[in-house]
Amino acid sequence: MSNVRRFGAAGDGKSDDTEAIGHALADGDGVLHFPPGTYRITKPIEVNLATRAPLSIDGTGGTARIVMAGKGPAFRLIGTHGGTGDPGSRQGNVATHQRLPTIRNIEIEGAHAEADGFELIQTMQSVFEGVMVTHCRHGIHLVERNRNVLISHCHIYFNRGVGVYLDGVNLHQINIASSHISYNRQGGIRLERSEVRNLQITGNDIEYNNFRAHKTEPEPTAEIYIDTTAEGASVNEVTIASNTIQATDSPVGANIRIKEKPDTSRPPGLFAISGNIIGSQENNVHLSGCYGIALGGNCIYSAKHRNLIIEDSRLINVSGNTFRRHTPKYGTGVRIVSSSDITFTGCAIHDETEEGQPDLNALLELADCQRINISGSQFINGLIGIAAENTSHTILSANTIHDTRENPIAQHAARFSGKGTGNLANHNSVGPCKGKAIEGNITSSN
To answer: Other CB atoms closer than 10 Å to residue 337's CB: what's the count?
Structure first.
């Protein structure tokens, strides 16, 4: 292996080891091996994969640290892959030399306001394993074009920008798994201005990604932030599963925020969000302009505003989720606005406090919606269970809407107001209310 010490690197945390590491890259065998120590660099180590690959960066079981004291990424990997994931699209030496650049068991620490961890451009089958990036701007920054990226067993922790940033990138096939992505000021995993297919986010701890730990001014952020509103951007085929996604609340913040364009020739969709623990933000899950999302089997708890907001969306299946409020500091509830073709099935929304939520209209709110099916769900201890305004062709069936407090304070089980036609309620179990249980422009047989 190309031991950087043999090329003159001191590894004492004081000397500038940039030139020595550059020599090891240029004249070594392709394995940049960092023995235990702290290696200070002042400009990016730029790797041209077409000429200096195959490439591996090894930090000796995590005992080596790179301190980036200059502007830009500690390591910039530049390939020439302009194709897809199809083997036949690989040109030049992509298949033989550029494939599988691997970064393993090393720490990157930023010591400059504009220091980043890693930047990848036109790479093929890049692997990050056992990597820590801290005190940088962005942790792992993917730009332009990349294919088949694996990020696992990493700590992307306390960075000023984004933990894993898909920034104006054309990227298909990326797996982010078994990692700790936390305390990054501008988001944990963030996608903007990008075309992405096959994004899997599985088994991670993604939390506290906002301004609070950095003591800066707040800005809109999320643990997972997907924004495809820019021209040409789109994201499809996404799985967010078995993660812990939680935070402290921040203004206009969310645990999962997905912003899509509702009216496009090729609608977004093919999202599955399942089996996650999601909680303690201004809004836990916030979907705007979305189409074709399955949100199921999650425990979604305690929001400053709402557990779930769905806006300007259609074909959303919300099933088997537990929505709960476990502290008076936060609330619980779901709001669906200007949306259609939504199913809300087998869910439970519980307010576990005694005082109720006087500033909340209802546990489930509908406004300007069409064709909403609400069935087999529980709405427990809301001042109002379900409230709908200017909503049509909504069906409430086989739900339990109760106030279980010793002194019930519920006003209505369901209240429909404003304009709306074709609303039906049947076979629901309704508890005692101070007002009429089912009220408004809805036909009831409960």
So the answer is: 16
Helix (H) or strand (E) holding 18: helix 18-27
Please answer whether residues 346 and 319 qualify as being in contact, where contact means their C-beta atoms are separated by less than 8 angstroms. Answer: yes
- The answer to whether the Cα torsion of 380, 403, 361, 414 is positive or negative is positive
Question: Average pLDDT for residues 123-136, to the nearest whole number?
Answer: 97
The H or E element containing residue 20 is helix 18-27
Terminal alpha carbon distance of the chain: 75
Cα–Cα distance measured from residue 45 to residue 25, given in angstroms and rounded to the nearest whole number: 9
Q: Is the predicted pLDDT of residue 266 greater than 70, yes or no?
A: no
| DSSP code at position 161 | S
Environment class of 176 (CB within 10 Å of its CB; exposed 0-12, middle 13-18, buried 19+) = buried
Q: State the Cα torsion 166-169-171-177 to the nearest 10°.
A: -10
With 0-12 CB in 10 A as exposed, 13-18 as middle and 19+ as buried, what is 113? exposed
Residues in CB range of 215: below 8 A, 6 or more apart: none
Q: Are 334 and 305 in contact (CB under 8 A)?
A: no
The alpha carbon torsion through 331, 334, 336, 341 (nearest 10 deg) reads: 170
Please state the rounded mean pLDDT for residues 192-209: 97
Distance between CA atoms of residues 256 and 162, nearest Å: 14
Q: Tell me, what's the pLDDT at 421?
A: 94
Judged against a pLDDT cut of 70, whether residue 443 lies above it is answered with yes
- Overall average pLDDT of the 58-76 stretch: 97
Report CA torsion sign: 110, 116, 119, 125.
positive
pLDDT of residue 358: 62
3-state secondary structure of 212: helix
d(CA 286, CA 266): 22
Q: Any idea how long the chain is?
A: 446
Residues 150 and 123: beta-carbon distance below 8 Å: no
What is the per-residue pLDDT across 131-149, written as a single tens digit (0 to 9) for each? 999 999 999 999 999 999 9
Measured distance CA(69)–CA(326) in Å, rounded:
45
Structure tokens at 245: 């996604």
Given a contact cutoff of 8 angstroms between Cβ atoms, the answer to whether 352 and 381 are in contact is: yes
- Give 416-446 as a DSSP string: EESS----EEES-EE---SS-SEEES-EEE-
Instruction: Give the integer Cα–Cα distance in Å for 233 and 197.
Output: 11
CB half-sphere exposure, 46, CA atoms < 13 A: 7
pLDDT reading at 13 higher than 80: yes
